[in-house]
Amino acid sequence: MDTNFDLKEHPHSRLNILTGDWILVSPHRTKRPWQGKVEATQADDRPQYDPACYLCPTNKRADGSENPDYKGSFVFTNDYSSLLLNTPDGGLNEDELLVANSQKGICRVISFSPRHDLTLPQMTTKEISKVVDVWQSEFEDLASYPWIKHIQIFENKGDIMGCSNPHPHGQIWAQNSLPVEVAKETQQQKLHFEQKGTSLLADYLALELRKHDRIVFENEHFVVLVPFWAVWPYETMIVSKRHVTSILYFTEQEKHALADAIRRLTIRYDNMFETSFPYSAGMHQSPVNSGDHPYWHWHMHFYPPLLRSATVKVAR
Q1: How buried is 18 (Cβ within 10 angstroms: 0-12 exposed, 13-18 middle, 19+ buried)?
Q2: pLDDT value at position 33?
Q3: DSSP string, 10-64
Q4: 306 near 313, Cβ under 8 Å?
Q5: CB–CB of 139/249 below 8 Å?
Q6: The predicted structure's pLDDT at residue 255
Q7: Do the Cβ atoms of 135 and 153 come closer than 8 Å?
């Protein structure tokens, strides 16, 4: 291999060890001058309570249901679920060219707080810890359905990410099959575990902690880093230091530390461009009701869409 090659200067491809995909990286393009579109930053001046919001306490939702006067987090089945509980089995296969399979699932919404104006970085670690408690209990409840094979906990923050309601909230999708990304990660982690006898992400985390090139911060139980194969600018990943397959097995101390990690990371995002920073964040964890998956290692991806400022978006 040419010793003149410089990872920080020359175009190259990087392997995403979690999916097996190769990512094109062109570091020299960061030197381009920018003379493109510039927009004014919009102020985020939401009230504590919005009588027109279908997530605020005591308000009516689109289906006519009335929210309770909740004081912490509030969970309900999505009124416009992408997956439905009563979807019949079936599909389509015409000459192996038009192929479809029915998908069955449960979609729930989690309002993080009764406050219409509080995002996760504006909440206290104690308040976020209670959200983590809800995530854990919801995971356990949804895993009790034997036909559910995967549970996705995620948040799309900001209208740029397609969020349909400004009241801070997340979602949980539980379905009867594995999403493509999770299926890839399952295969890659299983292969590494079979070959090395260790967790893929535990080994990767040990390497990153030794190099300390891409570490954003760490606490006692979690590390926040920029993955070597990152595609989005400011993309990060939270990885548990302990090899844990899902949120179900986090201790009280780990749940508090996860809340701390989420709060500190999202505060950094907000401070970076002095805006309520948009992102798509999702936990990746072991499939359920399909045997043991000892090779799986819990982690959480953050994909922000911004490039150079609060208004300059990534072109993909």
Answers
A1: buried
A2: 65
A3: S-EEEE-TTT--EEEE-GGGGG----S---PPPP----S--TT-SSSTT-B-TTS
A4: yes
A5: no
A6: 98
A7: yes
167 as an active site residue: the answer is no
- Measured at the alpha carbon of residue 209, what is the angle toward residues 14 and 199, in degrees to the nearest 5? 70
Task: Identify the band that residue 174 occupies on the pLDDT scale cut at 50, 70 and 90.
Answer: very high
Amino acid (one-letter) located at 239: V
Inform me whether the pLDDT recorded for 188 exceeds 90.
yes
Q: What is the CA radius of gyration of the chain?
A: 21
Domains and CATH numbers, the chain: 47-303 (3.30.428.10)
Q: Report the pLDDT averaged over residues 82-95.
A: 90
Give the C-alpha separation, 240 to 203, whole Å: 12
Length of the chain: 316
Active-site position among 169, 192, 221, 284: 169
Give 205-228 as a DSSP string.
Answer: HHHHHHH-SSEEEE-SSEEEE--T
Pairing of strands 150-157, 105-111: unpaired
- Per the rule left: phi > 0, alpha: psi between -120 and 50, beta: everything else, 262 is alpha
Under 8 Å between Cβ of 192 and 205: no
CA 13 – CA 18 distance, rounded (Å): 15
The residue behind tokens 């740029």 is 160
Q: What is the pLDDT of residues 190-228, one digit of tens each?
A: 999 999 999 999 999 999 999 999 999 999 999 999 999
What whole-number distance in Å separates Cα of residue 185 and Cα of residue 16? 10
* pTM greater than 0.85: yes
Q: How far is CA 107 from CA 80, 131, 175, in A?
A: 9, 17, 9
Identify the residue with better confidence: 56 or 308: 56
In degrees, rounded to 5, the angle at the alpha carbon of residue 273 between the alpha carbons of residues 315 and 6 is 60
Angstrom distance (rounded) from CA 35 to CA 308: 12
